Amino acid sequence: MKRYEDLSPSLRCIMTPGPVEVDPRVLRAMSFPILGQFDPEFTSIMNETMEMLRELFATGNQWAYPVDGTSRSGIEAVMVSLIAPGDRVLIPIFGRFGHLLHEIAERCGAEVFVIEKTWGSVFEPGEVIAAMHSFKPNVVAMVHGETSTGRVQPLAEIGRACRELDALFIVDAVATIGGVPVETDAWMLDAVIGGTQKCLSVPSGMAPITYNERAEAKLLTRKRVERGLRTSEVQPGELSFVRSNYFDLSMLQDYWSPLRLNHHTEMTSMLYALREGLRLTLEEGLEERFARHVLNEKALVAGLTAMGLELYGDPSCKLTVVTCVIIPEGVDGESVRSMLLERFGIEIASSFGPLKGLIWRIGTMGFSCRENNVLRVLGALEATLLRHGVSLPCGLAVQAALDVYEANIR
Ligand SMILES: Cc1ncc(COP(=O)(O)O)c(C=O)c1O
Fold first, then answer.
1. 136 and 236 both lie in a single domain
2. How far does residue 79's CA lie from ligand 1's centre (Å)?
3. What is the pLDDT of residues 316-374, one digit of tens each?
4. What does the pLDDT average to over 187-206?
5. Strands 168-173 and 191-194
6. CATH number of the domain within which 133 lies
7. Is residue 373 one of the residues assigned to a domain?
8. What's this model's pTM, rounded to 2 decimal places?
9. How many domains does the chain have?
10. Is 173 in the same domain as 308?
11. What is the mean pLDDT of residues 207-231?
């Protein structure tokens, strides 16, 4: 009989745009005993999680709860629930995850209109608003922080235009939530999807979402109660009921409401992890957390620049939590990444599509976003590049980063 070794994953320094390192307190929370999903102790954990999510999303929305599955499940749940077949959907795309929204909207049977921006930049709000005037969408879906290109899209003006033109505005804030301000109510975002495995630093496996009354009104026109749970007074939904059972938000919200109408079996240990991750985030303070992300980004960028490396993309819309570096000419980017992982235990990311082989992406997210990690990645990258025959000014990178940290203390 084959014998298997004890599971013993290496301790890594993870400097990618997710998944990132997890605070040991979150890991500890995952080891707590299982509670039944209708145990009052568990439902009070559900309610507390909803309360904390409202704070995280900066919203007064009633609905703020996690969908079980990775971030993509939250995106799919929101889109399949709020986009009915035949809806007119505008998707402004400026990287890989905009294409994902396109993909999902098509699968919802929508008439999809796409506008695209060259990777490395974002839209002027006026460009999106002009497209709204010409395509007259009833839904606009776009990404806030594009991890594929390291750019952040300003949303407030687009949100206002969506309200004026009566379109629902769906936003993928998977990469930004907990690391960069996401102002759901102030920016008039109708539905927002966050991620756990990035700036919140909780393992992948849940997708926190929020949506407002405008979104709920549309959802309720598609409401359906599952066969086997219906009572005589509950009517099945309209013809355009949501085509997914697992991702039907009208059913999920009944489960997360005091009704506690049975749906799936909640992911107990993941919910403990999310609750603990949220608790730690709010304990740190959102403003303080955003400032920590800015400081570490500043130190990282100072170090990379001092090393003579060039950053990718339009600096005016750089996403704080992802720094994209152009791979120096003649250098095998994958060989550098392998050496960083194998010799230093540090992981940085490559990229997708047109950027594959051209840039590295370094994340400074959540629990991974710390001074010692930034200094480690700079020192190790310098040594690795020297080993790959790149001539660079030695010893300056870590010093430049230290200067940033020291200036911040003064
Ligand atoms: C901006 C953005 N949206 C969506 C996703 C998809 O998330 P997941 O892989 O957790 O399903 C990612 C993952 O990296 C992302 O960066």
1. yes
2. 15
3. 999 999 999 999 999 999 999 999 999 999 999 999 899 999 999 999 999 999 999 99
4. 98
5. parallel
6. 3.40.640.10
7. yes
8. 0.97
9. 2
10. no
11. 91
Known binding site for substrate: residues? 361
Q: Is 335 within a domain?
A: yes
Ligand 1 atom at shortest distance from the alpha carbon of 145: 1
* Four-CA torsion 160, 166, 168, 171, nearest 10 degrees: -20
> Cβ distance 273 to 26 under 8 Å?
yes
Distance, in Å, from the CA atom of 402 to the CA atom of 299, rounded to the nearest integer, reads 7
Q: Which residues are part of a known binding site?
A: 361
Provide the pLDDT for residue 281: 98
**Which of 68, 72, 155, 197 to mutate for ligand 1's pocket (most ligand atoms within 8 Å of CB)?**
72
- DSSP secondary structure, 203-248, as one string: -SSEEEEEE-HHHHHHHHTT----TTT--TTPPP--TT--S-STT-
Q: Angle at which helices 396-409 and 286-306 pack, to 10 degrees?
A: 150
Task: State the CB neighbour count (10 A cutoff) for residue 367.
Answer: 20
Query: Could you report the per-residue pLDDT of 275-323, keeping only the tens digit for each?
Result: 999 999 999 999 999 999 999 999 999 999 999 999 999 999 999 999 9
CA 4 to ligand 1 centroid distance, Å: 32
Find the mean pLDDT for residues 263-270. Answer: 95
Residue 166 above 90 pLDDT? Answer: yes
Q: pLDDT-derived band of residue 410, with 50, 70 and 90 as boundaries? A: low
Query: Among 207, 147, 149, which residue's Cα sits nearest to residue 365?
Result: 147
Q: Measured from the CA of 207, which atom of ligand 1 is nearest?
A: 10
| CA 94 to ligand 1 center in whole angstroms | 14
Q: Read off the CATH number of the domain in which 361 is found.
A: 3.90.1150.10
- Give residues (CB < 6 A) around ligand 1: 18, 70-72, 97, 143, 147, 172, 174-175, 195, 204
pLDDT recorded at residue 233: 60
In the reported structure, the alpha carbon of residue 237 is separated from the centroid of ligand 1 by a whole-number distance in angstroms of: 31
Please tell me the predicted confidence (pLDDT) of residue 235: 61
Q: Which domain holds residue 95?
A: 22-281
How far is it, in rounded angstroms, from Cα 28 to Cα 119? 40
Pocket probe for ligand 1: among 97, 176, 182, the residue whose CB has the most ligand atoms within 8 Å is 97
DSSP-derived 3-state class of residue 47? helix
